[in-house]
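Posting this for the archive.
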Amino acid sequence: MRGRQGNPLQKNPLPLPANNLILIGAVHGDPRGHERIVKLLEWLQPDLVTVEISPFSLRYRRAWEGRWQRQLQKALAELPPEAAGHPAIRRVAAQIALPGEYRAARDYSRGRGRKCLPLDLGGVSRQHLPRYGRELLTSANLRALAGEPGDSLEDLVCREFRRARLALARPPWRLDLHNGPETRRRERFWCTRLKRLVRQGGRIAHLGGWEHLVPWREGEGFRSWLADEDPCILLADEADWFPGPN
């Protein structure tokens, strides 16, 4: 069974895929990401869930999240009350929190005795996470962000899922900025580890940014390197088309 994308007109869950590897594309910072992914995982019932986050990032975030939250609240106290609801500030709040994709995988796995595995290299996190307190969460930066016009976070996420669906429907496509050496190294790492896990048996669901599911123009990249495993491709918002409350 080849990977496929959902049909927005379909109001019932799609037939459970027979594939042993399911790749779920998320939009980072999606305010409904946790509930959407939990709903998908409850339907898929994977034995193992891997997530695009490094062990280093998890350790660092757990150590610093409380301080980041306090710094955010202190900075917001210097801004007008409505600033907290600005889309850019909400994106910052999501950025400093434990990612919804990991929380969803953790919560699903804990409740069912399944395994959840962080699967990424720590290079990007080591470069960017220490800058949050120094740059991202300063009063000056938040004031500048809150002063910019912007659509709602929900609208931005909806547009990003539409962009994802178009890109997946018309491969090969990949923005050049995603094809750098670090992206190539990370995607090779994911591919090698996932192939090894598939050989061990069981159903595996991998959660990550949707951009990584789009083949590169030159026929390389994460999706292409995993072609032999015949993965099923889903987007996280397909959970919205299942029956029941969204």
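The first strand starts at residue 21 and ends at 26. The chain has one domain: 21-241.
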